[in-house]
Specification:
The complex is a heterodimer of chains A (about 110) and B (about 120).
Chain A: E1 3-6, E2 9-12, E3 18-24, E4 32-37, E5 44-48, E6 52-53, E7 61-66, E8 69-74, E9 84-89, E10 97-98, E11 102-106
Parallel strand pairs in A: 2-11
Antiparallel strand pairs in A: 1-3, 3-8, 4-5, 4-9, 5-6, 7-8, 9-10, 9-11
Chain B: E1 3-7, E2 10-12, E3 18-25, E4 34-39, E5 45-51, E6 58-60, E7 68-73, E8 78-83, E9 92-99, E10 106-109, E11 113-117
Parallel strand pairs in B: 2-11
Antiparallel strand pairs in B: 1-3, 3-8, 4-5, 4-9, 5-6, 7-8, 9-10, 9-11
Classes of the chains: A mainly beta (about 110), B mainly beta (about 120).
Chain lengths: ~110, ~120
């Protein structure tokens, strides 16, 4: 299963609403997770099961979708949110296929 | 506090071997599946291998199958990755990651250990 993220990068301002899309090459139900990675750091789990917020993650992050089309939304971008975001499918082998990433930069 | 700490990375020649370790603390290690995930320089994330909580079930990405071996020692709260026949394309930061619920949701990651394969 291939995961295609769009856009590959975006520029946004603090306070903006940001939406990142992840498309699967075939249906994966709700077996999708989202991670945030800052430069030089390990990824951090944000959302799993397409829309379940991981404990401790701010509520401005939300996820939606099922089947082949998924979105990660940041309702009001904060300075600490500038990072690269990855989607990941966990529905079929090979497990844990990741998307190519979306880099969110400061405008 | 949940913590996983990798070690063992370094510079190795093509065809060489390396053993990575991951020390876990702050949770009941024997209850969780564990994984290795890598990231080549400037690239995205690639799942490498997983091991069930008991160590009975092992899984590998096609890119490392037959060359890498995952193992664990639940008495020592440790995870390992034995890497043989290393290639330039194995150059990456290798992360140890805990599986939240046995279905490849990675909720805790180490800081990573760098592996460089070069002559």
């Amino acid at each position: 299963i291939q995961l295609t993220q769009s856009p590959s990068s975006l520029s946004a301002s603090v306070g903006d609403r940001v939406t990142i899309t992840c498309r699967a090459s075939q249906g994966i139900g709700s077996y999708l997770a989202w991670y945030q990675q800052k430069p030089g750091k390990a990824p951090n789990l944000l959302i799993y099961a397409a829309s379940t917020l991981q404990s401790g993650v701010p509520s401005r992050f939300s996820g939606s979708g099922s089947g082949t089309d998924f979105t990660l939304t940041i309702s009001s971008l904060q300075p600490e949110d500038f990072a690269t975001y990855y989607c990941q499918q966990l529905n079929s082998y090979p497990p844990a296929t990741f998307g190519g990433g979306t880099k969110v930069e400061i405008k | 506090e949940v913590q996983v700490v990798e070690s063992g990375g370094g510079l190795v020649k093509p065809g060489g071997s390396l053993r990575l370790s991951c020390a876990a603390s702050g949770f009941t290690f024997r209850s969780y599946s564990m994984n290795w995930v890598r990231q080549a320089p400037g690239k995205g994330l690639e799942w490498v291998s997983s091991i069930s909580s008991s160590g009975s079930y092992l899984y590998y990405a096609d890119s490392v199958k037959g060359r890498f071996t995952i193992s664990r020692d639940n008495a020592k709260n440790s995870l390992y990755l034995e890497m043989n026949s290393l290639r330039a394309e194995d150059t990456a930061v290798y992360y140890c990651a805990r599986d939240l619920s046995g279905i490849y949701i990675f909720d805790s990651w180490g800081q990573g250990t760098q592996v460089a394969v070069s002559s």
